[in-house]
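Mods, move this if it's the wrong board.
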Amino acid sequence: MAAPIKLNEVLKIPALGIRADAISFANCTMESEKFITVREQAGEQVMIHIVDLFNPARTEKRPITADAALMNPVAKILALKSGQALQIFNIELKSKMKAHNMPEPVVYWKWINERTMALVTANAVFHWSMDGTSEPVKVFDRLPQMSTYQIINYRADAAEKWMVLTGIAQAQDGSGRIVGNMQLYSAEKQQSQSIEGHAAAFSQFLCQGATEQSTLFAFANKSATGTKLHIIEVVKGNSAMPFQKRAVDITVPADAANDFPVAMQVSDKYGLVFLVSKFGYIYVFDVETGTQVFMNRISAETIFTTCVNSASGGLLGINRLGQVLHVQIDDQNIVKFIQGNLQNLDLAMKVAARGKLPGAEQLYAANFDQLLRSGDIQGAAEMAAKSPNGVLRTPNTINKFKTVASQNPGGQNPLLIYFSKILEDSSLNAVESVELARPVIGQGKQQLLQKWFDEGKLECSEDLGDLIKQVDGTLALKVYNKANCPGKVIACFVETQQYDKILAYAQRVGYQPEWTGILANMVVLNPEGAVRLAQMLVNQEGGSKIDVAAVAELFLNRNMLQQTTSFLLDALKGNKPEEAALQTKLLEINLRAAPQVAEAILSNGMLTHYDRATVGQLCERAGLFQRALEHFTELKDLKRVIVYASQMQAEFLLEWFGTLDTTWAIDLLKEMLAKDMRSNLQICVQVATKYSEFMTPSTLIGIFEEFKSMEGLYYYLGAIVNFSQDETVHYKYIVACAKVGMMKNDF
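Not the wrong board. Structure tokens:
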């Protein structure tokens, strides 16, 4: 059967023109799949080669005076060490980032991530952050028993809570054996532990049923009695089952009895440990169980530096010949190899699930179906619920449980068994949450949904909210809110009459709802609340959030005249020309139904852009004749209204006549006398008196005589005669007096 790994040579470093004697642990470094740095010395001349692994042809070469160089694992940032002096350069910006003089020589250094460099001296370990102007900070002191060991590695977990320093030395028993020693340090406890070991690594691993990763610590040791791999959990996740500590024997080839581990890398993608030995062997183990998956020799020369290839989940290594080797898992063969060669179906399924490899779901599905066929509902539910990366937690699995339930209607619901298994140490996804809610609601146990919601066991969705809303509007509101369904949240606010929360919520989540529809729902339940919300929406910073005309029509359709008026008065207080139609609408509805309100609005003078002709006609129909006169501009309209002068304020009419053309004023006086002399005579006399000079006495005398109003003529001339030198005025006044007097004598 084909091997579960693929091996290829990325490049030969000497082919780049780099001397073979520069390819060593001291001069050649590789912190990631991006760059290799090689310090090359020929006589007094020292050069640094920066090899771009993605494009080796772009290798940079520059002279330096430093003792060592180290490229950042992510960016083009170069660290240089010369004696106790350290410098960090940004190559792309051509600038120095940081510099520091250490109190003692650095015997080993390494980037533990793109932001932090570890510096190991004879007495302590320091971390140097690239942030700001920070200087190296001591993390822990080295244990005395490691003082004679050559430091070959230093690792830290992702959270920098655990660190391990690794060194090797020759055994003191005369055997020539190479022994390893490690100092494991807990930052939280500030404690160190000495462990025998040659190679170590940390891994972030999601244990079965967990939603939070555990931090695992793996290390390998070659002792006088054999070689072992140890795996322990140093930071616990949230799995209900504790991680089982592992200590497994490593099977070493017969011709490699003196071999020992030199490097370890963990592929979190597959959950596999790569262990490289001095003699060039690679061992592959499962990080969860310690099971040895594969072993083979990949190099006849010692591999002195390695790193994880984050893109492939594999391992890169450099041997003494300068070969850059890439080992990666063969996605097409790894599962078949474990299933066939190791006869380990469980491990095959786990690796397939972790790596999302082809056939992972099929492997689990086959086993799951077998359990269902055998009637082992508990076992099938357990397998589906605990399947790695949830490969079986699919709608298809739910449907299979439903089918089993339909075949045995009187038995315990398999679906509930399945969900209960998930809920033991995990939470439900969106589909599962809905499928669980259906039978729970059907049984009238919706209080369980509240409990699971409070515990964070349900994945909230719009579908789940819709289902719960049938029995519990308050919980549905919480579900919609958590599921980020703003439209449904606002609908719930409307239904529960929490109107004051609607606008604040929409602004907080940045939601722009269809406000007219929302107001349409609100107006049925709480008209005043709808008006308050509408008023808030039109007064928003940056302008109205609603179509004022549409909302006004909405209120009017519900015969809410008072609320419509209140809303429009608030909306139109800016008195903008573009709002002319709405101003007209506001006045129209009130002139038709509540003229006194319209009168108050017009008296206020806050609106000036409405259609004056239309409003004038409406004022006339409403009996607001004085307002009608203010708005009409056509003589025919004025004649029609002026006959109701007796119903207007005399002061207004006297002032208003002064705004008219003299010809129009005369015509209107005639109209007043012709249509209703009895009611209008007094105001006509007052107008004639006040504007006698402009209309002329002769014209006014003629008007009163035309309509045979001697009383009008008498009062008009009596008001001006003492101030007039006109003989006609005096004569006509005497005549009027005589006629009025004779009329009085008749009585």
